[in-house]
Amino acid sequence: MNTQEVMQQFEKYVISNYARLPRVIVRAQGATMWDADGREYLDFFPGWAVSGIGHCHPRVVEAIRRQAGELIHIDNTFYSLPQGQLAQLLSERAFGGKVFFCNSGAEAVEAALKLARKATPEGKYKIISMLGGFHGRTFGAITATAQPKYHQGFAPMLPGFKYVRYNDLDEVRAAIDDETAAVLLEPIQGEGGVKVADDAYLKGLRQLCDERGVLLILDEVQTGLGRTGTWFGYQHSGVVPDIMTMAKALGGGVSIGAIMAKPEIAAALVPGTHASTFGGNPLACAAGVAVIEAIEQENLLENAEVMSDRIMAHLEQMGQRHSCVEEIRGRGLMMGVELNRPGQGIVDACLERGLRVNCTQSVVLRMTPPMTVSAEQVDKAMAILDEAVAAVMAS
Ligand SMILES: *Cc1c(COP(=O)(O)O)cnc(C)c1O
Known about the structure:
This protein has helices at 3-13, 58-70, 81-93, 105-119, 139-144, 169-175, 199-212, 263-266, 282-297, 300-321, 344-352, 375-394; strands at residues 25-29, 32-35, 40-43, 98-102, 126-130, 161-164, 180-185, 188-189, 195-196, 215-219, 243-246, 257-261, 325-331, 334-339, 355-356, 358-360, 364-367. With 395 residues, the chain is α/β, with parallel strands linked by helices.
């Protein structure tokens, strides 16, 4: 089938809830993908940050093949090997918490919200979340997502949520009352425009939560698993959350989500309180184990830092050449370029030239290249981006 035929098939049979680019992707490897017409692209937003170690990483492919021949799914009536192994690997690379597995970022957020209510004393139920944040599309997650566009047409939201400005400790202090169970935020707001939480703000939040008996939940769905150059985003500040969510890059492309909670908090989820049929299935967990092994054995945290510096240097230069660049932000391989104009034209111009980037909040170009990206790929991508910006500015 050619691109036109596939688009017609979607038109007729697939619900049109996505604004898709007119390309059919048929194959991808590392930071490169190919479409049905044989065109090649550098993918600097692979899988919306899911393919953190690149598309079809050989270790992940091999782990999936091996596991598929042994046991794809077994329900949580039983124990299974990959689930325990992945939980241990995650715990040892974070804060020694215990893990519950689910299947997506939104589900991880739901689990975190339920655990926060369950683990705090009776009467505490309120959640404070941040304006401009993003936590997924289920009802709890959209309620936590303090952006009106995600609520429109779906009212009423879940009761008990309060929104405050990101990076503003005084607003959180004023919003906490005796019924507050938790504060929820991303260490870096991704969809919200690549906004980094100040270390001092996170330290202040930790202290405030401790003083007021409130749990601190960090949504690491996008920042987790090496994206920012450390295993988890919180590790830059040293501020340890009570509960942390993960998903996106965790499965190397296979859908998986998880929360980690300090053991004394995790203890609130006794049998019958929460569950997921697919959660922790051997296939997804084997993929997750392969992701962690790849990051460690191929020194990808280090490569992420080196490539981050390289991209930032390119972007700074680009910012000096083009007056449309307002600000360059990010940490590790999660970067945003804020423009003084809409960015979709640049995204399209990049795609035409063989580079895929994303635009969020209308004016922020967003890039999350894989941790396996090479210096040559970075240089090529930045040359394309520069050319695309110049072309759009000249038009
Ligand atoms: C993508 C994202 C989610 C939602 O994940 P899904 O897998 O799409 O449900 C939640 N939180 C953050 C921070 C995200 O970036």
